[in-house]
């Protein structure tokens, strides 16, 4: 067709879209000539948001809500508008010189939409890029009030919190279950100012001085030439660094233990790592270490599970946290303190409290609970909250102060500095998730992304123009306390205290505190990671470090690597094991644990329904696994033999021995050249086999007992063949209290 006809047609079609004073004819409405669509074709009330989905308030630095209506911050209301609030007629077609013509520069809506999109990403965190968060509440027991004046520790006080969990090394889109340290950062919105407890799930750190942080991170991140491996420490540069900077050996053995692959964020301990100083109402001080103790106990994946999950469900930990909160199985931790006298040496039981590569065993200083954290609300918008949240160690309320730990001192600088690039300017505390809940009355002004409209003319003090405001507070007005700690008269020097030279004794303490099965995992982890290195000299150097930790550990890893065992260390530290470091040997509540129930066409669905209800009633999360999606009778199927992998479940219940799908049999028989029938669907057999290999409790009844027999695991530890569903469930729930059936592999786990 000739261009001129096209232009004419377009003009006519545009004309038919306009009636009266430009009112659009809504497709599907009477007289519009277009067929009705299923989705709404004219404005109607949107579904009401859930109560927790309200748009967070945006505060000015004085704590007042800005004049900006909440609707400006969310997708609300019936009509699409520009960023300036003008209603839009069409957001699907750019303004062109005719339907086949070029886009016109004057299309301001097109330019606004594309420009905003082009700038949607902010730089990911340089470390801890991959993470997820949740809101919750911290309730104080009052037990900490005698040693700390911070109001949020006073008995019964409830403080809103936001927690972000993370891995360290991977990029924002990397898998959740890699072997790595996990971040555990908590923002307490106290009414005396925000308190950020920016911790990890490992109580020590790789380095003793913050100046080495870029070095350890450069070594842990992917190689700079080809940018591999992603989110892994199993590569040459990491092991090169930790074998040369032997202060890293303690943190590294924790990474190689099961702590490096947590089962869930809900089953992780958290540690403030550094020693902090608390001050009470009388001005007395103590030194403390912060601990988070999970209600569900500390549990991990097996290494094979972690690897499978990286492919099957890379968002495993993120999903687990969300699902648990949505299911009402709110994750819980107790905040505990190890309390030490504030002596001039800053040591306890001979341990240097300023050295962040050292713990104080709990047997020497008990962890005393001071409050409870419950996570009960998922974020409304990931970017606005989880991505933009900015933690900072200097966010301290009156009553909590820092120490001279050289790692902590360096972090006090880094966390604000990094936000200047990541959140593009100095006003990031005005972002709703970062905004304090305490009234703010600072004299910080202007800068990129300034949202406050500050009144007054005198942002300086003293002044006589703004009534002299603001005034400085004293003790009576609860001013922040910088504890006047004496600083030793000493030469300005780049050096560590002598006590920082002990790099191996606590790595040995950790090893000696592990049970047999945990030791086995540690050996396997070192063997795997070092086995991935290319440089023999690096492996040999790390073996020499292991010789300083323990000869058995060293020898077993050397054998696995096929390298000579280095000469034993001339002297090994004489350590007393700390049972509190082991994850095994106690029992924990099974709440929120995920139980898969296999039900095929032959299952007694009444019994399956009863077991499912019993599991829900006991606070567990049952998922019915069926041969196909949809329904099995009245029972909804949540996973199918195709979508379920054993790694999703903490335990398996089998109500049936479903035969294979006809197509699958035909395919297999064709391949194997046999017509012998397979008794059980191979996908179910794989489920059973993996669950058994990962030491998970397995319960069976009815046809399920046939399934476990056919899988060759009947009568092995932790596999219960019961007379009915109720008995099978009860037995499995009891086994879950120990997390896994470790006795399946070892007669003794001690
Ligand atoms: Fe961090 N760390 N870190 N770190 N860190 C960051 O801050 C840094 C250290 C930790 O979920 C960064 O906002 C230095 C120890 C967590 O948003 C950055 C040193 C511990 C998170 C930074 C350390 C941590 C971070 C990157 C050595 C455990 C994630 C983005 C002195 C006690 C917080 C950001 C979140 C994040 C610096 C060591 C925990 C670059 C210089 C020790 C949980 O500022």
TrEMBL record:
Q: Where is this region: Disordered?
A: 1-63
Q: Name one Pfam family in it.
A: Catalase-rel
Indicate the cross-link positions, 3'-histidyl-3-tyrosine (His-Tyr): 392-415
Q: Where is the composition biased (Low complexity)?
A: 12-38
Cofactor(s) the protein requires to work: heme
Name under which the protein is recorded: Catalase
* Gene3D superfamilies, per the entry: 1.20.1370.20, 3.40.50.880, Catalase core domain (2.40.180.10)
Q: Does the keyword Oxidoreductase apply?
A: yes
Q: Which InterPro entries match?
A: Catalase, Catalase_AS, Catalase_clade2, Catalase_clade2_helical, Catalase_core, Catalase_haem_BS, Catalase_immune_responsive, Catalase_large_C
Q: What class of enzyme is it?
A: oxidoreductase
Q: Which family does it belong to?
A: Belongs to the catalase family. HPII subfamily.
Which SUPFAM superfamilies does this one have? Class I glutamine amidotransferase-like, Heme-dependent catalase-like
Q: Which residues form the active site?
A: 128, 200
Record field: catalytic activity? 2 H2O2 = O2 + 2 H2O
Q: What role does it play?
A: Decomposes hydrogen peroxide into water and oxygen; serves to protect cells from the toxic effects of hydrogen peroxide.
The organism that produces this protein has a lineage beginning with: Bacteria, Bacillati, Actinomycetota, Actinomycetes, Micromonosporales
Q: What is its EC number?
A: 1.11.1.6
Give GO cellular component annotations, separated by semicolons.
cytosol
- What does the UniProt keyword field contain? Heme, Hydrogen peroxide, Iron, Metal-binding, Oxidoreductase, Peroxidase
Question: Compositional bias (Basic and acidic residues) spans?
Answer: 1-11
């Amino acid at each position: 067709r000739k261009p001129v006809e096209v232009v004419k047609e377009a003009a006519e079609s545009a004309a038919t879209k306009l009636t009266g004073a430009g009112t659009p004819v809504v497709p599907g409405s009477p007289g519009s000539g277009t067929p009705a669509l299923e989705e709404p074709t004219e404005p109607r009330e949107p579904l009401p948001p859930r109560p927790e989905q309200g748009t967070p308030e945006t505060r000015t630095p004085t704590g007042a809500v800005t004049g900006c209506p909440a609707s400006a911050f969310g997708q609300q209301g019936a009509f699409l508008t520009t960023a300036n609030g003008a209603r839009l007629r069409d957001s699907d077609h750019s303004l062109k010189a005719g339907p086949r013509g070029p886009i016109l520069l004057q299309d301001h809506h097109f330019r606004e939409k594309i420009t905003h999109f082009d700038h949607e990403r902010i730089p990911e965190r340089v470390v801890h890029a991959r993470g997820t968060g949740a809101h919750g509440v911290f309730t104080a027991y009052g037990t900490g009030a005698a040693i700390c004046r911070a109001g949020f520790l006073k008995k019964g006080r409830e403080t809103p919190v936001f927690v972000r969990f993370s891995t360290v090394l991977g990029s924002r889109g990397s898998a959740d279950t890699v072997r790595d340290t996990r971040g555990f950062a908590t923002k307490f919105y106290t009414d005396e100012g925000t308190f950020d407890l920016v911790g990890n799930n490992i109580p020590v750190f790789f380095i003793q001085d913050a100046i080495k942080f870029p070095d350890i991170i450069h070594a842990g991140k992917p190689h700079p030439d080809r940018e591999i491996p992603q989110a892994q420490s199993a590569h040459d540069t990491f092991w090169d660094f930790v074998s040369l900077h032997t202060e890293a050996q303690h943190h590294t053995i924790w990474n190689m233990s099961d702590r490096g692959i947590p089962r869930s964020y809900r089953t992780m301990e958290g540690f403030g790592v550094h020693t902090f100083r608390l001050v009470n109402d009388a001005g007395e001080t103590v030194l403390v270490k912060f601990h988070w103790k999970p209600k569900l106990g500390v549990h991990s994946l097996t290494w094979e599970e972690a690897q499978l999950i990286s492919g099957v469900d890379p968002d495993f930990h993120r999903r687990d946290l969300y699902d648990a909160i949505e299911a009402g199985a709110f994750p819980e931790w107790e905040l505990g303190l190890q309390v030490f006298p504030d002596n001039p040496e800053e040591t306890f039981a001979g341990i240097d409290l300023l050295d962040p590569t050292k713990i104080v065993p709990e047997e020497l200083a008990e962890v005393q609970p001071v409050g409870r954290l419950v996570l009960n609300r998922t974020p409304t918008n990931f970017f606005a909250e989880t991505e933009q949240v900015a933690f900072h160690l200097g966010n301290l309320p009156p009553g909590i102060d820092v120490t001279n730990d050289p790692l902590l001192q360096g972090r006090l600088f880094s966390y604000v500095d990094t936000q200047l690039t990541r959140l593009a300017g100095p006003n990031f505390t005005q972002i709703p998730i970062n905004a304090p809940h305490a009234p703010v009355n600072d004299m910080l002004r202007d800068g990129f992304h300034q949202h406050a409209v500050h009144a007054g003319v005198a942002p300086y003090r003293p002044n006589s123009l703004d009534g002299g405001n603001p005034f400085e507070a004293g003790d009576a007005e609860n001013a922040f306390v910088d504890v006047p700690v004496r600083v030793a008269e000493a030469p300005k020097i780049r050096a560590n205290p002598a006590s920082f030279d002990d790099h191996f004794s606590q790595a040995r303490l950790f090893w000696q505190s592990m049970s047999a099965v945990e030791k086995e995992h540690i050996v396997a982890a070192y063997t795997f990671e070092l086995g991935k290195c290319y440089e023999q000299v690096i492996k040999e150097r790390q073996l020499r470090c292991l010789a300083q930790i323990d000869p058995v550990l060293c020898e077993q890893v050397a054998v696995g690597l096929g390298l000579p065992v280095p000469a034993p260390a001339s002297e090994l530290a004489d350590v007393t094991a700390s049972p509190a470091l082991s994850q095994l040997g106690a029992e924990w509540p099974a709440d929120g644990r995920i139980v898969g129930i296999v039900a095929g066409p032959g299952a007694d669905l009444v019994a399956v329904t009863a077991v499912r209800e019993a599991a829900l009633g006991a606070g567990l999360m049952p998922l019915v696994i069926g041969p196909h999606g949809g329904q099995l009778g009245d029972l909804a199927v949540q996973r199918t033999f195709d979508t379920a992998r054993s790694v999703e479940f903490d335990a398996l219940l089998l109500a049936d021995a479903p035969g294979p799908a006809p197509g699958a049999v035909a395919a297999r028989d064709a391949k194997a050249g046999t017509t012998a029938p397979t008794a059980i669907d191979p996908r179910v057999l794989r489920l059973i086999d993996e669950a058994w290999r990962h030491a998970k409790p397995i319960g069976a009844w009815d046809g399920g007992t046939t399934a476990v027999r056919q899988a060759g695991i009947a009568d092995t530890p932790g596999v219960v063949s019961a007379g009915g569903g109720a008995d099978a469930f009860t037995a499995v729930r009891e086994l879950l209290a120990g997390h896994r059936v470790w006795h399946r592999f070892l007669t003794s786990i001690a």
